[in-house]
Design a protein that fits this description.
Helices cover 64% and strands 3% of the residues.
Length: 688
């Protein structure tokens, strides 16, 4: 900043801007309150149906959120402007005081342009008027005035520049709308950006040769600022895509004998999480700099990154930093499409991911897997972002992503130290599929079921297709997640399992053949079988109490048909694994566990029925004997008799005004429906 710019600066316009933004903040605060308490509050209380339940409610919720973001961003802009205005006025006053003090020793300060100045004698003694006494000064006085003016100009320049940078980054966070970032003053916005630059340069310049103390400071600062949007973007763009990959490759490779692999090995996982959270937040910025960062990172995916001891691919390194955090949806899908395209060109991707002489020992320090398979990290990242997961599994151009990851993709053991675990990549893929089909984040313990979209349904249909085509080769790692998915879609599953025929005009009906095959594969695992049956018990009770068909008997008979359908799926599963039916002999299912977040709410009256039905069903399962794997030929399912009896009792409770049947005849009817449903399912499987 030039000396004269600050010395003669008129900050009235900046003061006017501060006042104007104060008014904007006040107005937006009122609008935010109206939107939150009025618009959004009314929407949450409303009983939405049909399109309104998805499109309109989502629009209202998003709109209310925009008002909150607008208020937060406007407050930040006002705070930064006000703080900067007050600081610049203060520096101007300090400058004028310093110049005034200099005149007392016959020194003045002259602006020489481009931010420079000179300290000179104000009145030369030889040119002083007759009788005028000119104050004397020493070289120390000259140096002191020069240093003081320089300090003031440097501070004013820093205040002005940091405010400019913070405001630009703040408003660039979103291409449309508002970011919601909140800062109390200029310092609170500027400090994270300065710290981000310092840390990013530490990583670029030292890598894993930093000292253990520097590592600890890095980890603490990343944890402190990992949710700060200005820090996130400044850190990512300063480090750069290649710098990010080089650092993680350098840190992961122990062959250089660095101290960190020994002294801080137990903290590498925490650093991986903190670094991943910072980068995830940075990708949610819509600034041109971050768009360029994302594009370059994807381009580097199939490049080989050389370390001292080996070579690894960019996809392998970046995917390990995607295991935590909410990455931008568009970035995840572009990255995922590029990774699938690369793997399809490789044909045998495991040969490439395990390459390197020798292979990189580990790139992942969070879980058990070594982190060589980049699909594990990508799928974990997608599971944290359900909308991105939905888009990924529905993408068919330039390739069908779902077909690749659910059906065609070769996998390899990325946990060679444990021979008895499942495949980590498939475990992660199952979680991503669960998020995609349900719209719920399976890693969020506070998640609740959400309204399904047409895209969620499309994922469900496509997953049933590919997994049913796999038959008995459907990966066991998918069983729990598919059981949870089917329970989340329990209305459609119950409707399909109890259908009497294919009905293309019924939007709730799934493909019955595909559903039976997947239900069979799910039933090969005791816990997955328990989730599926327990969840559909809830749906049958909800149907009995809340649905109102023209003939109330429909809900009773549908319950029976679904029980028969599930029994056939269970029989086929046991018949497939008849050499090892041990899980059936020892009933150990203890409830939904992690699947609880995906279970639709049934209401108070129905919930009491659910609890009673669950108890009777558990009794049936506990009473099974090993020899019962053979198909029953009678019309009564003795293995399900407690369950069917309780369903008949619940139907009676829910329909007190219905006359003409007693407990015996109702139980007989639901038993008949169960046998009919079982027989119909046998036909679907081609067993008749």
């Amino acid at each position: 900043m030039d000396l004269d710019t600050l010395r003669f600066g008129r900050f009235e316009k900046l003061g006017t801007a501060v006042a104007d933004w104060a008014k904007v903040v006040s107005h937006l605060e009122t609008l935010e309150k109206d939107a939150r308490d009025g618009l959004k509050g009314a929407a949450e209380k409303a009983d939405w149906k049909g399109v309104n339940a998805t499109v309109t409610r989502e629009f209202i919720t998003k709109t209310a959120g925009e008002f909150a973001d607008a208020h937060a961003e406007a407050s930040s802009i006002h705070n930064i402007l006000k703080d900067t205005h007050d600081e610049l006025v203060g520096y101007r006053n300090q400058l004028n005081q310093a110049i005034s003090d200099g005149l007392k020793t016959n020194l003045t300060v002259m602006d020489t342009g481009s931010g420079s100045f000179t300290v000179t004698m104000n009145i030369h003694p030889d040119r002083a008027a007759a009788g005028t006494s000119v104050p004397e000064h020493s070289q120390q006085d000259v140096d002191h005035l020069r240093d003081e003016v320089q300090r003031i100009l440097k501070a004013a320049t820093e205040s002005d520049n940091s405010a400019d940078q913070a405001l630009r980054v703040l408003v660039d966070q979103t291409a449309y709308g508002f970011s919601g970032a909140s800062y109390q003053d200029r310092d609170s916005a500027a400090a994270p950006m300065e710290e981000a630059k310092r840390l990013a340069n530490l990583l670029k310049n030292k890598g894993d040769s930093m000292s253990p103390e520097e590592f600890d400071e890095l980890n603490r600062s990343l944890a402190k600022y990992r949710n700060d949007p200005l820090f996130q973007e400044e850190f990512a763009t300063t480090l750069g895509p290649r710098g990010t990959l080089d650092f993680w490759a350098d840190l992961s490779d122990p062959s250089d004998g660095g101290d960190l692999q020994r002294s801080r090995h137990d903290q590498l996982g925490e650093l991986q999480k903190n670094l991943g959270l910072v980068l995830a937040g940075a990708t949610r910025s819509d600034s041109p700099a971050m768009h360029q960062w994302e594009d370059q990172m994807i381009q580097l995916g199939d490049d080989r990154i050389q370390t001292r001891g080996t070579q690894v691919y960019g996809f392998q390194l970046m995917s390990n930093l995607m295991r935590v955090g909410d990455y931008d949806d568009q970035f995840l899908n572009k990255y995922g499409n590029a990774l699938v395209a690369t793997e399809k060109k490789m044909r045998l991707p495991d040969h490439y991911w395990n390459a390197g002489v020798p292979p990189m020992p580990k790139m992942n320090f969070i879980g058990d897997d070594f982190g060589r398979d980049p699909m594990t990290g990508l799928m974990t990242g997608l599971s944290n972002s359900p909308k991105a997961a939905t888009d990924f599994f529905n993408t068919t151009q330039p390739q069908d992503n779902a077909e690749w990851v659910l059906k065609d993709r070769p996998v390899f053991d990325d946990t060679p130290l444990n021979d008895h675990d499942g495949n980590q990549s498939r475990e992660a893929t199952g979680k991503a599929l669960l998020a995609a089909a349900t719209g719920v984040n399976p890693n969020d313990p506070n998640a609740v079921p959400v309204e399904h979209t047409a895209d969620n349904r499309h994922v469900l249909d496509r997953s049933l297709k590919y997994l049913s085509e796999a038959g008995d080769d459907m990966p066991s790692e998918f069983r729990d997640d598919m059981a949870t998915t089917l329970v989340n879609w329990s209305d459609e599953v119950h409707n399909t399992a109890s259908s009497l025929a294919d009905d293309p005009s019924d939007p709730r009906q799934l493909d019955r053949h595909q559903l039976l095959e997947v239900a069979k594969q799910v039933s090969r695992d005791q816990n997955a079988y328990g989730i599926l049956n327990d969840g559909l018990n809830r749906e049958m009770v909800r149907d009995i109490y809340n649905d109102h068909p023209s003939d109330p008997k429909e809900t009773l008979l549908r319950a029976g048909h679904t029980v028969g359908f599930l029994e056939e799926a269970r029989y086929q599963a046991l018949n497939t694994d008849k050499r090892d039916p041990s899980w059936d002999a020892k009933w150990l299912y203890h409830g939904f566990g992690g699947a609880a977040n995906f279970i639709p709410v049934v209401g108070d009256a129905a919930q009491r029925g659910v609890d009673a039905l669950a108890y009777q069903w558990q009794l049936d399962e506990q009473n099974r004997i090993n020899e019962e794997a053979a198909r029953q030929s009678g019309a009564v399912f003795t293995a399900r008799e407690n369950q069917l009896q309780k369903l008949a009792d619940l139907w009676t409770d829910a329909n007190p005004g219905h006359h003409g049947n007693n407990r015996y005849t109702l139980t007989s009817e639901i038993n008949g429906a169960a046998f009919d449903g079982n027989s119909r399912a046998q036909g679907l499987a081609g067993n008749q």
